[in-house]
Amino acid sequence: MNIERYLPALNKLEQHRKQILVFIITSRLLMFAALVLFFSLFFGFLKLFTAEASDGMFDYFKWFFYLIAGGIMTAFVYNAIQILFRLAGSKWSQNVKIIGLLSVAITIFAVFLAGIVGSLWLGAKFNAVMFVKWVGSIATFIGLAVMSSFFSRFEKKFVDKFKSIMIPLIVDGLNKKVELKPKEFIPKNIFTDSGLYPAQQIIDYNGGNLFSGSYGKGSYLFSELKVVAKEEKRSQGKSETRIYDLFDGVFYVADFNKKFNGRTLILPDRARKHFGEFLGEKLNALPAFSDTKIVRLENLDFEKEFAVYSTDQIEARYIITPSFMERLLHLQQRIGQDIYVSFVHNQLFIAVTSSMGVLSPLVLKPVNTPDQIEPIINLISGLIDTGNELNLNTRIWGD
């Protein structure tokens, strides 16, 4: 792929990235330090608390709390290391063993640090001096978090600037009939109609860079989306609220050639990849969405990559023809990301997810290199060509 036409803009962006790189790294380090300090203080406080009542049941509960808190911290540290590797474009970002060992090592260090904090800094008794030190430690934690947030603004502004400059240039360079509206995005009702991401309540729905165009007799839309949802559960008379990221990526919708009676979904086959063919097949057979059942197909390459669920087995096999399976595999390879697909009413929906932003650069790596810009070009051009790529104009059955 020739990226020469993009180099002048990319070189200017690279100069800007170098100027703010120290702020980007500082933000990540401060966030990491705040995380370690928070859990270290928790361990230190737990040690003080159990020291005051070291007899009886507290001896048993102490190790239980250490185990739970240590597990939580390991999970947080694991996620932070994985993000750092991805920002740097490291091949280790998918290496579970390497990240796991680093996470355990850092957690052990934090537990050791907690002992020092509890014994040497906070003291061995609950008194006024300990209270002042504890307040000071909490203030330090808050200060680290605030400074991390402040420095992270440089990263966000750079990513926004990169998109505002490069995405229009990419669209122009593709020389295709497509309209780009940077401030608009896919309407919420289209997102919810897909059935790919059911949620109790969506509390934040934002996006940008809305692409629109046509293929043959059909039309399509796709844009970046960031969706936050809220879930409430009641158990034993208590209410629990969970706020979480429902979707973060690029969402695509296109007209199909037939109105469907049922609902068919094509999902990445993570169970088979993580647990092997036999156990993965058993897990895939479990209900993934209400009223749907697993659909068995004859294309082994497709079955390795995707799990298919539908409310109508016969209709699903009409939709997912051998030709369609080959084309979808090729589209996934071209885009270079996991894709989620659904067929509802007379529309095809495709979701491309990434925790790092699928149209964003890796900020810890130079941006004026092919491996930074080519995946973004491939994703945009791949989605623009999806209608033709999947042959959506061809009728799969008569009226």
Structure characterization notes:
The chain starts with 6 loop residues before the first helix and ends in a 10-residue tail after the last helix. Residues 271-287 have low confidence and may be disordered. Helix content is 54%, strand content 21%. It has eleven helices and nine strands. The protein is of the alpha+beta class and 399 residues long.
Name some characteristics of this structure:
399 residues; 9-stranded antiparallel beta sheet; 9 strands; 21% strand; globular
- How can the largest sheet be summarized? 9 strands, antiparallel
Physical arrangement of strands within the biggest beta sheet: 1-2-3-4-9-8-5-7-6
Q: Quickly count the helices.
A: 11
What is the strand tally? 9
- Alpha carbon gap, first and last residue: 43 Å
The rough form would be described as: globular
Radius of gyration: 25 Å
Describe the structure in brief.
The protein is of the alpha+beta class.
Please write out the topology.
Layout: H1 7-52, H2 58-87, H3 96-121, H4 128-174, E1 178-181, H5 188-193, E2 201-215, E3 218-235, E4 238-255, E5 263-268, H6 270-284, E6 293-295, H7 300-305, E7 306-310, H8 313-319, H9 322-335, E8 339-344, E9 347-353, H10 370-384, H11 386-389
Antiparallel strand pairs: 1-2, 2-3, 3-4, 4-9, 5-7, 5-8, 6-7, 8-9
